[in-house]
């Protein structure tokens, strides 16, 4: 049993305690690598690990929960405790985290509610989720003999709303369901966000998020504390040591020595949580999306983040720079040599088989018919692709076609021949289809959900509903009679590679190979257009030739000694007869500034 208190400082069992924490998201790392990452955090001299908890991963469908495999948060907690690490857990309904929909389940979009508000329907949904989640977490609080020091009520709410009734409802749910450790909020360090997003008046601890200028930002927080008569310690809950990456934009780099000095500035004044310590990977289709004006800008699969550990989990120059700084200024925190993983030797895989999506769609998707095209969420689908199909009777040799209100990216095929690809701002523009008058042509539209926004007011925007959301016009009228094939691509075991492959159409490419020993690797996707990669059934995530990242990380836990299979789902008709396994990630050089 232990006692963690927040007074004029942090106290653990009555003794002052400086929190030296690093963020490691269990859901972005293969469980076989949790020990490796946590050990390297401890080896730096740090004493605490922080993690978000993604609601949409744990309750992907209403009332259906998953705490297995990469989502086994209990095993992650136990692994941290076995290394002597304490924990900060952030189980707030919304997490941001550059994660699909900020961690909110997409099924909420089909419920009659206002998310992140005191709407009773939303609070009820959170309550059912907390019944399962907090039933696990509360057993591992420090006063129960576990490692959890404190938990978060809401995340950067001051950058979204000021509904204090909502914040209190979440706090009360946590307490009702057994949370006894201190609670906190985290927000930007300036007064507007602190005033809107905290419960300082209710004595809920306040932390700040920033990535530089610690003296200035902590001064703003201290002024807010003084205004409310609070003598609290200062803590940066997210000290951004790097940044995330979006498609078509350059990777942001931060100088390791400058970062080490910036971290030192924080530690002179308070406690820290490095965001990220190990970023990991947005496996599957779980990357988030930035909102910029009318555009949603999806993020890449890698969540390397420029963190202290790279995507693979090995130390970077930033790790060693902070290690040196810690040894110089804080020798009381013992350090060890970090662990380093190996990679497979580079090798070239030869194509085993290929087959068309169109020839296999009945094998891997359950068709649903409707009068008008349906959205993803109406079909119970939340990520991936959705294929629409219909037949169009031609009233003239050339007809005008328009997709009315679709998200996010549409590929249009007439009689299985590619007609056009439209993305956000192009969707809705005229397309011309040709055929014999009074005859029918087959129309297929492949819609990709490229990721829901994870931050800001557009969480409430209709753009977060994916697929064709209004209809498809031929000439001037809405066309009827549609088939829909949901393609979350969770099970590819029924793919039939004996079926035909079509040129310039979405297709699957299989690579079979054997391994005598298993290590991490990267797949170089140069020469392929756009799509996703599956290794022994594990969805690695998206690739896209526009860069800047042109490879996908494969943890050794996804591989096995003996026979292995890689399946590439490629939507642009661009592929190679070979696939390269390499030892380092690959990139395109993109010049310019990030938006």
From TrEMBL:
<dbReference type="InterPro" id="IPR001944">
    <property type="entry name" value="Glycoside_Hdrlase_35"/>
</dbReference>
<dbReference type="InterPro" id="IPR008979">
    <property type="entry name" value="Galactose-bd-like_sf"/>
</dbReference>
<keyword id="KW-0326">Glycosidase</keyword>
<dbReference type="InterPro" id="IPR031330">
    <property type="entry name" value="Gly_Hdrlase_35_cat"/>
</dbReference>
<comment type="similarity">
    <text>Belongs to the glycosyl hydrolase 35 family.</text>
</comment>
<dbReference type="InterPro" id="IPR019801">
    <property type="entry name" value="Glyco_hydro_35_CS"/>
</dbReference>
<dbReference type="GO" id="GO:0005975">
    <property type="term" value="P:carbohydrate metabolic process"/>
</dbReference>
<feature type="active site" description="Proton donor">
    <location>
        <position position="156"/>
    </location>
</feature>
<dbReference type="Pfam" id="PF01301">
    <property type="entry name" value="Glyco_hydro_35"/>
</dbReference>
<feature type="domain" description="Beta-galactosidase 1-like first all-beta">
    <location>
        <begin position="373"/>
        <end position="488"/>
    </location>
</feature>
<feature type="active site" description="Nucleophile">
    <location>
        <position position="238"/>
    </location>
</feature>
<dbReference type="Pfam" id="PF21317">
    <property type="entry name" value="BetaGal_ABD_1"/>
</dbReference>
<keyword id="KW-0378">Hydrolase</keyword>
<dbReference type="InterPro" id="IPR048912">
    <property type="entry name" value="BetaGal1-like_ABD1"/>
</dbReference>
<dbReference type="InterPro" id="IPR048913">
    <property type="entry name" value="BetaGal_gal-bd"/>
</dbReference>
<dbReference type="GO" id="GO:0004565">
    <property type="term" value="F:beta-galactosidase activity"/>
</dbReference>
<dbReference type="Pfam" id="PF21467">
    <property type="entry name" value="BetaGal_gal-bd"/>
</dbReference>
<protein>
    <recommendedName>
        <fullName>Beta-galactosidase</fullName>
        <ecNumber>3.2.1.23</ecNumber>
    </recommendedName>
</protein>
<feature type="domain" description="Beta-galactosidase galactose-binding">
    <location>
        <begin position="506"/>
        <end position="564"/>
    </location>
</feature>
<dbReference type="InterPro" id="IPR026283">
    <property type="entry name" value="B-gal_1-like"/>
</dbReference>
<dbReference type="InterPro" id="IPR017853">
    <property type="entry name" value="GH"/>
</dbReference>
<feature type="domain" description="Glycoside hydrolase 35 catalytic">
    <location>
        <begin position="10"/>
        <end position="328"/>
    </location>
</feature>
